[in-house]
Amino acid sequence: MATENTNWFSFGQKDMTVFIFVMSLSGLQYAITEVLPEFDVGPLELGVGDFIFIPIVLVLLFRTFWAALAVPMGEVVFEDILLGDFNGLGVMEDLLLVSTCFFFAALLFQDPKNRRQLAAVVLIAEGLNEFLAMFVDIGKVYIGVEELEAVPGLPESILVLEGVDFITQMVITGIIFGVIPALYLYPKLHGKIEPLMGMEPYKGTRGASMVRGFSWKAALSVLLAFPLAFGFAAAEEAGFGLNVVWEPEFMEAYGEMFIAVPIVVAALVAIVVWQRAKHSA
Amino acid sequence: MSYQEEFRDALSIESLKQDLLRTAYDNEGTIFNRLDPRVLLAWYAAFLVIPWLFYDLRILGGLLAFVSILAVVSRVSKYLIALLAFGVVTNVLLYAFVTVLMGGSFVRSATALLPYTTKLTIVSVTSIAVFSGMSPKNISRAFMSIGVPRQFTFAISYGYRMLPVLIEEYHATVTVYRLRSRAPESPGRFKCRYYVYLIRLSIKAFYPMIFDVAKRSRVTVEALETRGFSYSLESTKSRELQLGDLRVGWFDLLFMGGSAIIVASIIFPFV
Predict the structure, then answer these.
(1) How far is A93 from chain B (nearest CA, A)?
(2) Nearest-CA residue of chain A relative to B46?
(3) ipTM for this model
(4) Which is it for the CA torsion A25, A31, A37, A38, positive or negative?
(5) Which of A70, A137, B25, B129 could disulfide-link to A23, CB 3.0 to 4.6 Å?
(6) What is the pLDDT of residues A45-67, one digit of tens each?
(7) Host domain of residue B55
């Protein structure tokens, strides 16, 4: 594993090339699928989701942490920032979840000639990502909706819809736009694209099982990424947990002046960001 | 023109492409671009927090109206706004509908969800307005000023320059594939065979793209290195140069003060 010997954050020239390469292509893919007629019926995404085969095949070819990190970066830069769909801290959710899940799946991939393994790894990358993202989504609604349990049927409907969404996502994004095109694309690119970037193609071991690539370190990093991602996403949704405190009783207890609190908080956030910006400039 | 044709025209690749490029590039002269990027970032951070502090729909509605006006002023893409609106409406309806299936009440679940989705919408509209109203140079500088690594701020300006090139190239590749292949004889029910054909083409078109982008990335990095990119990452001098001409002017103060007054006047009548 190239990434384990060197510092993860040392960024060589080759890493930069791979980073730009993967970022541009997965970004292009996100930009195109963003505007393709897809139907987001509420939380359910029907129709063309993402062409997930592009990023996953590239990560499997280059197998570095930077390649995996470039996937969510492509989404952030092309889809979120340039097309203006940026959602603040929620971006951290993508950066953490997508990159660790993809990297983890790439480590599991041991035998490039084994097509069954290739299919399994693509499904693991997408499945793990969707599965963890599902929990983040459910948690977000629980935090964001006031007295959720008080509305009968609503918590169940959230669980049901997220579950259905997970299944449709796995079928559409995972299989139709994931496994099938990846099976076509990976063998075609393997050994051709790496030399173009000045790299050795990944040989792997013929007949090696996926278990060999399983590392506790990588598994742990996925497990760590999940609570972190949830923390960031929840912080974004909940405004740093402040609306949990914001109950009507406070109004009675502290009177009208309590309205000053959120304004002061917003001002404080602005000032902190401003100070940080000015300080490092 | 019939409704169907109009709809197809609105969704044609050419018009989508133009809409995309306008979103990403047409930001000269918007208010957000005239502001100091650091001030704008601080303003944005405050606006990410404010909606979460209220449950009153009148306040949230007022805030939504305010950010929507800002979005109109910064000329955001109608297509993206339409997608957003569709998503929000179906979100509430679908949750409410499934709640009924689970034995709950449609109205109660919709009213419970409404403040939450309104907050999400406020945040999304603010984001679209701010980030499509800011030039990528300013976005990079704003992020650089809060200490985001240079590799990432570089990625923003790179993406900005590459997006039209890549989309143009992709579109050309898809067109070439269409010329060289045969469309299905009969479109099938609901034109499904035709769509499958288009999707297959759009997947295949990525294959030549990958090689082109690989070559281009390598050339880019080589060009960057001859200009001392890695060296400038470490150097504080280069940072100072890039951030040196940021100034807070009267316009920034006016904008901050103005939005504070507007937000206060939205909130106070209802508390």
Answers:
(1) 16
(2) A266
(3) 0.80
(4) positive
(5) A70
(6) 666 678 899 999 999 999 888 89
(7) 13-134+248-268
